[in-house]
């Protein structure tokens, strides 16, 4: 189904950047917001270029196919991130929290030596 709307191109470009950038940003949750934004946008551009290169290599270039491929890869990145987060939270609940720690993280401080 083709749309004759003049917004078709800009909306497709926005989606091709936003979908993988969002998935990568979720995966990079530990970074500060600005670093996460830059890394997510760079990763989105790299993913788009890899999809385009792969489609051109096998002589199967199509706009719809590219959008579908980027969507599937973005969903796979998001799914892998969610699975990793669930596995990490399950591991923390089994071990329990160390005594005196409210967040479940323990910090070891080194004592200075007298040398």
Could you walk me through the main structural features you see in this protein, from its secondary elements to its overall organization?
With 115 residues, the protein is mainly α. It is 68% helix and 0% strand. The chain contains 3 helices and no strands. α1 packs across α2 and α2 crosses α3. The termini are far apart.
List the helices and strands and how they pair.
Blueprint: H1 8-27, H2 33-57, H3 63-95
Characteristic key phrases:
elongated, 3 helices
In brief:
The protein contains three helices and no strands.
Report on the biggest sheet: none
Q: Specify the number of helices.
A: 3
For the record, give the distance between the C-alpha atoms at the N and C termini, rounded to a whole number: 77 Å
Low-pLDDT segments, ≥5 res: none
Instruction: Count all strands and give the number.
Output: 0
Mean pLDDT, all residues: 84
């Amino acid at each position: 189904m083709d749309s004759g709307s003049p917004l078709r191109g800009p909306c497709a470009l926005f989606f091709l950047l936003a979908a993988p950038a969002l998935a990568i940003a979720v995966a990079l949750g530990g970074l500060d917001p600005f670093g996460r934004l830059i890394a997510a946008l760079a990763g989105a551009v790299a993913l788009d270029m890899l999809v385009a290169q792969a489609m051109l290599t096998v002589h199967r270039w199509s706009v719809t196919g590219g959008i579908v491929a980027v969507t599937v890869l973005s969903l796979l990145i998001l799914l892998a991130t969610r699975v990793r987060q669930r596995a990490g939270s399950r591991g923390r609940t089994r071990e329990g929290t160390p005594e005196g720690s409210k967040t479940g993280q323990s910090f070891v401080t080194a004592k200075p030596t007298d040398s």
